[in-house]
Amino acid sequence: MQPSIWLIPLRNLDADARAIQLGSVAELELAPGQRDFVGDPLRMALVGLAEDSRHPYVIEADGEPVGVLTLQSGAAELAGWPDKDSVWLLRGFLIDRRHQGKGLGTLAATAAVETARKLTARLGGDDAGVVLSVNERNHAGQSAYLKAGFIDRGPYLGGDSGPQRTMFCCFARPASADVNLD
C-alpha cells in the first residue's frame, strides 16, 4: 500500500505548531553524499519562512515528517529557466535518508506540482508549472522527478554543486508541449 503524502505549509501554522514541525526538520538526516546536492534542512526551512517569495513545506508520510521542500515564485532562472516568473521553482527538496528508496520522493514531487498549481490559482498568478535543477550525479533524484512527470529540459551549468539538469512539469498540458528553453 502506497503511503499518504502531505505537504505541511510552515507559513500557515501557528507558532506552536510551526515550532514542532521545525523541531522535526532539525532531526532529518542526510545520506552520505546527499549534502553535495542539498543544504541543511532546518536552515532551508528558516530561510523559506523569512522570504515572502518562498513557501516552505514539511513532507509527511503517513503522519511522520520525512522531508522538506520549498516552492518559490520569481526565481525560476535559478534552475536554468529562461525567465524568472513563468513557473514556480522547486528547491531545497530532500527526503530523510531513513525514508529513501520507498518512492516518497516521487510522491512528494507530484504533490509539490499540485500544491504549486493550487498556489497559482489562489494567488491569481499565471504560472505554467514547476521547474527545478538536479545535479547530474543525483541519479535517484532524476529518476524520482521523471516518475513524477517532470521532463528533462537539458543541461544547466549555473548551480553551485556542479553540472545540473533542468527539469520541468507543466500544470495543464503534457510537460513537453509549448515550452521551450531555447
Write structural notes for this entry:
By secondary structure, this protein is of the alpha+beta class. The protein is built from four helices and seven strands. The chain has helices at residues 15-26, 41-50, 104-123, 139-147; strands spanning 5-9, 54-61, 64-72, 88-95, 129-135, 151-156, 164-170. It has a seven-stranded mixed β-sheet with strand order 1-2-3-4-5-7-6, with helices on both faces. Helix 1 runs antiparallel to helix 2 and helix 3 (104-123) crosses helix 4 (139-147). The N and C termini lie far apart (41 Å).
Integer average pLDDT:
90
- Provide the low-confidence segments as ranges: 173-182
Radius of gyration: 15 Å
Extended strand count: 7
- What is the overall silhouette? globular
Largest sheet: 7 strands, mixed
Q: Number of DSSP helices?
A: 4
Helix content: 25-40%
The amount of beta strand, in percent, is: 25-35%
Q: N- to C-terminal separation?
A: 41 Å
- Order of helix and strand elements from N to C terminus: EHHEEEHEHEE
Strand order of the largest sheet: 1-2-3-4-5-7-6
Which structural class best describes the helix and strand composition? alpha+beta
Question: In brief, what are we looking at here?
Answer:
With 182 residues, this protein is α+β, with helices and mostly antiparallel strands.
